[in-house]
Amino acid sequence: VLTDPVVPCGQILALHLSIPSVFFLRGLPCSFDLQATQCPDPPSYVPRTFSDNSDHMTFIQRVENLFLKSSESFLCNFVYLPFELLASDVLHRPVTMKELLSHGSIWLKRMDFVFEYPMPVMPNIVFIGGINC
């Protein structure tokens, strides 16, 4: 199943049918893409989206980055709760968003590694460029 993981209905269908899924995305809110693929994402090193921080952060910027990361988790748990409930109903077991997305076979990311913030990624993440590339 080729799907966009922002709305994980395709992934729920892929898990229900036991077929592999390929994610095609630009990025996910709350760093779900990094969490699901187990990429390192320390808040003291990787700047949060919309924070305007660079990779050379001061101590205050690192603390701000930590607060942004913790607030993201509360917001995203609220936003993605309906999908977790839907997946739990369809798959007949409790499922979290991270667990749901961790079954993706390949992640095709529409971003260029040169223009974006460099970060460590797993082997199943492939940068394919995007409209701005």
UniProtKB/TrEMBL annotation:
GO terms for cellular component: membrane. SUPFAM superfamilies: UDP-Glycosyltransferase/glycogen phosphorylase. This is UDP-glucuronosyltransferase 1-1. Keywords: Glycosyltransferase, Membrane, Transferase, Transmembrane, Transmembrane helix. InterPro entries: UDP-glycosyltransferase, UDP_glucos_trans. Its main location: membrane. It comes from the Eukaryota. The keyword Glycosyltransferase applies. It is a single-pass membrane protein. The lineage of its organism: Eukaryota, Metazoa, Chordata, Craniata, Vertebrata. PANTHER family: EG:EG0003.4 PROTEIN-RELATED, UDP GLUCURONOSYLTRANSFERASE FAMILY 1 MEMBER A1. Belongs to the UDP-glycosyltransferase family. GO terms for molecular function: UDP-glycosyltransferase activity. It is found in: Membrane.
